[in-house]
Amino acid sequence: MSREPDTTPGLRLMELLDLITRQAKPLALPEVMALTGWPKPTVHRMLAQLEDGGWLVREPGGRRYAMASRLLRLAESVLSNSAQQGVRHAVLRQLVNEVGESCNLTAMSGAEVVYLDRVESAFPLRLELRPGTRVPAHCSASGKLFLAWMAARQRRALLDGLALTRYTAHTLTERKALEAELVAIRRDGHSVDAEEFVEGLVCVAVPV
Fold first, then answer.
1. What value does the mean pLDDT of the chain take?
2. pLDDT band at 30, cuts 50/70/90?
3. Which domains does the chain have, with CATH numbers?
4. Residue 202 β-bridge partners
5. CB contact at 8 A, 117 and 162
6. 99-120 residue pLDDT tens
7. CB neighbour list of residue 25: distance below 8 Å, 6 or more residues apart
8. C-alpha triplet 141, 144, 147: angle, nearest 5°
9. Burial of 66 (0-12, 13-18, 19+ CB in 10 A)
10. What is the 3-state secondary structure (H, E, C) of 138-153?
11. What is the strand order of the sheet 64-67 is part of?
12. Are 100 and 72 in contact (CB under 8 A)?
């Protein structure tokens, strides 16, 4: 027999969001019911509330629920302002002192890369990218790194809807060429942006 959740309504919604965000793929109503053990009317009502609030969005076809932009922005804010922010910044500053180049920490957000933290080098001429800045995934070192290490199903779905916009003469605008580079990134363990987003700018990204 299905059981009603035994916490307050607000906590129930948070529990449901937590469950959905920990899954490898968007979930349909029956799958959410199976994972929670909650009755159908309860789950349906809660999913509708989260969708109306902009926390979840239904995929094309209307059966599966995925994270919406509001939830992604919340996750980015948590990462940017967490108790670990000071520690991360200190590590980045030490790395900048060692390599003499600007260093940053990024995360994937939809089809873009968002900068969570950054420490600039001492060079007088530099490209300033503040935390919160977004750059395209297909022509940035971090973006290609995230794409390379995504689950194959998730990567295909993202690339299917991704416009490979040209920013410089070096931007990869053909999907076959981009996918070949992603294979090389998985093999080599690092990614390079060789003037693909900004002329004269070369970046290297590694997983941490």
1. 87
2. very high
3. 9-67 (1.10.10.10), 72-205 (3.30.450.40)
4. 194
5. no
6. 999 999 898 887 899 888 888 8
7. 64, 153, 154
8. 150
9. middle
10. CCCHHHHHHHHHCCHH
11. 27-28, 64-67, 56-58
12. no
Gap between the Cα atoms of 50 and 58, Å rounded: 11
Q: Which residue has the higher pLDDT, 131 or 91?
A: 91
**Whole-model pTM over 0.70:** no
CA terminus-to-terminus distance, the chain? 44
Could you report the per-residue pLDDT of 41-80, keeping only the tens digit for each?
999 999 999 999 988 988 877 889 988 878 877 776 766 6
Give the 3-state DSSP-derived string for the chain, with helices as H, strands as E and coil as C.
CCCCCCCCHHHHHHHHHHHHHCCCCCEEHHHHHHHHCCCHHHHHHHHHHHHHCCCEEECCCCCEEEECHHHHHHHHHHHHCCCCHHHHHHHHHHHHHHHCCCEEEEEEECCEEEEEEEECCCCCCCCCCCCCCEEECCCCHHHHHHHHHCCHHHHHHHHHCCCCCCCCCCCCCCHHHHHHHHHHHHHHCCEEEECCCCCCCEEEECCC
